[in-house]
């Protein structure tokens, strides 16, 4: 399995597995792995060793269907760059 860790990641799936299996306190685990006590507690309580998705699960549409239709028609008829169209729509 491919794991995409950011540059400053302190815990890997292997470390998380060790934290979950350990009988040490959260403070001791935090000191051992160089992480915060809250992080040690989080991984100790968690059932999985995988990170949760950080992408939004819902998309908040800011325009009504009518507004979207108007913007699309303006784009087609005026052939304006998107930045200029944005200025018009915000007015």
Description of the structure:
The structure is a single chain. The termini are far apart. Helices cover 54% and strands 0% of the residues. The radius of gyration is 24 Å and the shape is rod-shaped. The protein has 5 helices and no strands. The chain folds into 2 domains: 51 residues, no CATH class; 30 residues. By secondary structure, the chain is mostly helical. The mean pLDDT is 85. Helix 2 packs across helix 3.
Shape type: rod-shaped
> Number of DSSP helices?
5
Question: What series of H and E elements makes up the topology?
Answer: HHHHH
What structural class should be given to the helix and strand makeup?
Answer: mainly alpha
Query: What is the first-to-last residue Cα distance?
Result: 49 Å
Overall tally of structural domains: 2
Biggest sheet, open or closed, and with what strands and sense? Answer: none
Topology:
Elements: H1 13-21, H2 26-33, H3 37-45, H4 65-78, H5 82-90
Helix pairs in contact: 1-3, 2-3
Features:
54% helix; 0% strand; 5 helices; 91 residues; mainly alpha; rod-shaped
Summary?
This protein has helices at about 15-20, 25-35, 35-45, 65-80, 80-90. With about 90 residues, it is an all-alpha fold. The protein folds into 2 domains: about 1-50, no CATH class; about 60-90.
